[in-house]
Amino acid sequence: MLRNLGVAEVPTITNVDKNHSHESVEEKCYQGLLMWVRSCGTQIATTKTLCDALRQTGCTEALEALSKAGMSNNGFIMVNLSFIAC
Fold first, then answer.
1. Residues spanned by the domain of 16
2. Rounded Cα–Cα distance for residues 48 and 27 (Å)
3. What pLDDT is attached to residue 79?
4. Is residue 77 within 8 Å of residue 38, measured between CB atoms?
5. 53 assigned to some structural domain
6. Can you say how many angstroms the Cα of residue 39 is from the centroid of all Cα atoms in its chain?
7. Is 82 a residue whose pLDDT tops 60?
8. Does residue 76 form part of some domain?
9. Cβ neighbours around 39 below 10 Å, total
10. Angle between helices 60-68 and 47-57 (to 10 degrees)
11. Smaller CB count within 10 Å for the chain: N or C?
């Protein structure tokens, strides 16, 4: 999913995987999403961008979680992203 957000395989995704090698997949996803939001800022890191990437990846559970959290498709990502693990 991070690739669909435009996050570079090297070094970003590789570093997340290395730095959190003893963590769960959920934690790695969370850390990767945090890096994405911090590096892009709120102009690019929107819920629409995230939803588009989740659709491309086929992460329907994460899309449903966003919907249940009441996040629109065009808002900024300013919430706890821990429920997204795809």
1. 3-68
2. 22
3. 46
4. no
5. yes
6. 12
7. no
8. no
9. 14
10. 150
11. C
Assess if residue 47 is contained within a domain. Answer: yes
Cα angle for residues 11, 14, 18 (degrees, 5° grid): 125
How many structural domains compose the chain? 1
How many Å is the Cα radius of gyration of the chain? 12
Instruction: Flag whether 23 is in a domain.
Output: yes
Residues 41-62 pLDDT 10s: 888 888 889 889 999 999 888 8
13: its two tokens: 């995704």
pTM for this model (two decimals): 0.73
Sorted by sequence, the CB contacts under 8 Å of residue 78 that are 6+ apart come out as: 42
| Count of Cβ atoms closer than 10 Å to residue 36 Cβ | 23
Nearest CA-CA partner of 3 in 68, 63, 57, 73: 57
